[in-house]
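Hi V.,

You were right to ask for the full record rather than a summary. Here it is.
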Amino acid sequence: MARDADGFPVTRSPAGVVRAAAGSRELTVLDERVSGCRACPRLVTWREEVARVKRASFRSEEYWGRPVPGLGPVDARIGVVGLAPAAHGGNRTGRVFTGDRSGDWIFAALWRAGLANQPTSVAKDDGLELTDVRVCAAVRCAPPANAPTPEERDTCSPWLARELALLPRLRVIVVLGGFGWTALWPVLVGAGVPLPRPRPAFGHGVEVSLAGPNGPLTLLGSYHVSQQNTFTGRLTEPMLDAVLARAKELAAAD
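Predicted structure:
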């Protein structure tokens, strides 16, 4: 597999994503391959333009400007799936949900739940560590207007599928928002997970029990930690805390 100037393996097509994801036997290998992906031209152009132009308040920083891998240990029993990195958050810092207001919400909630060692996530070297939870996104590149296309979602889905498959103790997936909820269903189908019919609609607090490849698997819906939801009160801290408390309860029951 060819490597770019920074040493990351390069993937340039949807078929290449399928092969690269399937061939990743460890999370560290998967994360490296995610970081070199160039399979979606629109997203590559956008993320690199943002990294070049920068926001005025971050003009002195070097942006990551790449796809953003997941974060958390391989023995995690809880997964958290978001939408995509923010242009001046994960696309800047190189760590999922790091350096933006959405990250302020999710990592503070994980800290309150005892799943993170600190309530903030501002940079890769800030000392953050997660316990029993892996955080990732359905799409790994920052998209224009925070809106990936269905084609981009589908191209990216093998990365998510492989990431979840490499978590052998996974028992609960907290899905942030309707986009992630929709993106997760074909991933589960590909993993051979029997799905209910009709498929449950997304909603905050929705709970779906499935027979996962390694045991019981529960999906929990939560409104996304976007500013649109948190600023308007559609999602409150107690609401998010309740979902994570339920996730911990379900994970501990195994």
